Amino acid sequence: MRLSRPAALLAFALAACSTGDEPAEERLVAPILTSAEAHDDFTWARPTEARVTHVSLDLGLDFEAEQVGGTATLDIEAADDAREIVLDSNGLEVSAVTNGDGEPLSFELGENPDGSEKGEPFTISFAEDNGTVTAPEQIVITYKSAPGAEALQWLDPEQTAGKEHPFLFSQGQAILNRSWIPTQDSPGIRQSWDARIAAPTALGVVMSGIRRGDPANGPDGTKVYTFEMEHSVPPYLIAIAAGDIAFAQLGPRTGVWAEPSVLEAAKKELGDTEAMIDAAEELYGDYRWGRYDMIVLPASFPYGGMENPVMTFLTPTFIAGDRSNTGLVAHELAHSWSGNLVTYASWRDGWLNEGVTSYIESRISEKVFGKLRAEQEYALSYAALAKMVEEMGEGNPVTAMRTPPGTSPFDTAGEAIYDKGTVFLRTVESTVGREKFDAWLRSWFDRHAFQPATSEMFLADMRENLLEGDEELEDKLMLDEWVYGTGLPSNALKPDPEAFAAVDAAVDAYAESRDLTVIEAEWPEWSAAEQRRFLERLPEELSANELAALDQTLGLSQTGNTEVQFLWLDAALRNRYQPVVPQAEEFLTRVGRNKFVSPLFATLMAQDKWGQAIAKALYARTRGGYHSMTRGNVDKIVGRTE
Predict the structure, then answer these.
(1) Burial 263-281 (b: 16+ CB within 10 A, else e)
(2) Cα(235)–Cα(247) distance, integer angstroms
(3) What values do phi and psi take at 409, rounded to 5?
(4) pLDDT value of position 113
(5) Nearest to residue 337, comparing CAs of 411, 400, 425, 241?
(6) What Å distances lie between residue 399 and 296, 382, 479, CA to CA?
(7) CA distances (Å), 281 to each of 9, 285, 367, in order?
(8) How far is it, in rounded angstroms, from Cα 493 to Cα 192?
(9) Which residues have CB under 8 Å from 558's CB, separation 6+?
(10) 272, 297 contact by CB (below 8 A)
(11) Nearest 5°: CA angle at 600, between 598 and 605?
């Protein structure tokens, strides 16, 4: 249905969930928010004039050229006086634009005035007939992805676990999808989508939508896969992966894809996934996306996980053999409510996705794994936040949950988005009571399902439906200070000191005596969180003999937990411990997760000539295997210039 009046652009129709092969009965048209807080600085789009409501992709994967190409058909809605629609592009190669009837439309790929990651405006003019401009209901764009598109990583066979077939995966967040999909690439312009993907026969394809039917034989030795996402989603959540992948069922609505050699370990590690969904539903209402599948990607994937709907993308570094790192899975699952169901309209409100999600992650973990694990994870989160504020300074704008004007939201400290949001919501919960807070948060998701939101809306809803005019409670919660202020507010709920009491006593004793006798017996019995706590609180300066003793006594070089291994490597490298260098080089060659890669290169670069020589030589060898996001970060760290 095409709406012509500007006010109609704000309409919202809710479609029924569809998880089978049948098409959706009705497509979503999510609202466009027009408040100042909803403004997105990182899009060229003018959605109140003309906006995209649905994207249909018909693409082929060209592994030799490392490009995708084909057509994108956009359903659009426009105001009566609209003469054009503006999309986002970052290097797209566009060969033709027509309306739905095949009639050519004029278009212009503009310039990026400041050379930023925002890319360039892609303006399509509507046809004019005798002075009357009529907006088409559909626009068809024939194109190829940008050469070296930042959203796409093409892996040679040797970069995969199987070593036989190439691999492709996308990473759209934050504003990278405009390098392979011509649309309005803004979280506040939600769109439904479908896709038809032709890939080499030897490869499987998954996307962040429900697969419709079995793959069909295509031309030139390809197979064609069809996908649909009937719900409107922010464009950064359109994702694809293709490679030598196999599937294992986990539960009635859950499963995992991975390379065959990784699949069994991934299946075992993800055995609690169905229980996590049950826990989340008990707290926050129905899981509204049908299936919850995951894919474990090759190690160059730059994040721990990416919450792409119905197909979470995961790093293999979470596989520890004991499910100790599956808080990552709880986090990505939690996005099915906070982030995917209700999404920030502007990147300045990053905490609305990640902070709320981190809080829900903790609640899921408590239900599935017990209160102690949840309390320990909260203590780690609180400690990370406090450390960041101390290092950055209480008044630093990067410590604010909602990024203030004059600061890029992509420069905001991760702890301000994830951990501060978690501590904020734990503080509110403890003040108003868990039962009351749970009911309110669940109702927030219900009221704003499949819609964009802002901090302003979140706080207004909280005041109306949770505080209900209680001025004393308002003063106690300090809501505006949390969301708009910097630093750590004075009413922050501190973690339970008992959560890590034994570990903290042990690390204090070690710092005093450097004696590992007691810790040697306790270490194998500690949880991964307890081991992380110990390593995070080690003295900054350690001698070579002390590091050797730590490694030999605790078996740090042999750990299968990547989180623990990273902390060991960081402690050793900051103390210029030469014996660990080969292990660090192997780690940084194998692992592409930015959470580990960037800090280790930063630690090396901080060690003057010794570390800088290692870092620059190693990066010259490993750079090509990292995702563009990781490369961009490490380029700055090592001072690389193109």
Answers:
(1) beebbebbebbeebbebbe
(2) 26
(3) -60, -20
(4) 77
(5) 425
(6) 32, 14, 15
(7) 32, 5, 11
(8) 40
(9) none
(10) no
(11) 95
> Do the Cβ atoms of 379 and 441 come closer than 8 Å?
no
pTM above 0.70, yes or no: yes
**Rounded distance between C-alpha atoms, residue 65 and residue 109, angstroms:** 22
| Residue whose token pair is 């030469």 | 578
Query: Tens of pLDDT along 93-129?
Result: 999 999 999 999 999 999 987 777 899 999 999 988 8
For helices 594-605 and 608-622, angle between their N-to-C axes, nearest 10 degrees: 140
- Residue 20's pLDDT is what? 43
d(CA 151, CA 627) in angstroms, rounded, equals 9
Between CA 120 and CA 141 the distance in angstroms is: 16
The CA distance from 481 to 424, in Å, is 10
What is the Cα–Cα distance from 215 to 219, expressed in whole angstroms? 13
Contacts of 434 by beta carbon, 8 Å cutoff, 6+ apart: none
Please, which residues bridge with residue 51 across strands? 77
Strands (E), 303-462: 305-306, 311-314, 342-344, 451-453
Of 520, 529, 500, give the one whose Cα is nearest residue 323: 529
Task: Answer whether 282's CB lies under 8 Å from 276's CB.
Answer: no
Assign 27 a pLDDT band (cuts: 50, 70, 90): low
- pLDDT tens per residue across span 265-317: 999 999 999 999 999 999 999 999 999 999 999 999 999 999 999 999 999 99
DSSP β-bridge partners for residue 249: 255
d(CA 124, CA 105): 7
Give the DSSP letter string of 25-60.
Answer: SS---PPPP-SGGG--TT----TTTEEEEEEEEEEE
Provide the residue count of the chain: 642
Tokens of 541: 């300066």
Q: Which residues of 186-219 are buried (b: 16+ CB within 10 A; e: fewer)?
A: bbbbbbbbbbbbbbbeebbbbbbbbbbeebeebe
144: Cβ contacts below 8 Å, ≥ 6 apart: 67, 68, 69, 92, 93, 95
Q: Which residues contact 548 (CB under 8 A, 6 or more apart)?
A: 579
Beta-sheet pairing, 167-170 with 240-243: antiparallel
Cα 581 to the chain's mean position, in Å? 31
Helices (H) and strands (E) in the chain, counts: 20, 24
- Of 171, 162, 236, 273, whose CA–CA distance to 629 is shortest? 171
E strand or H helix at 557:
none
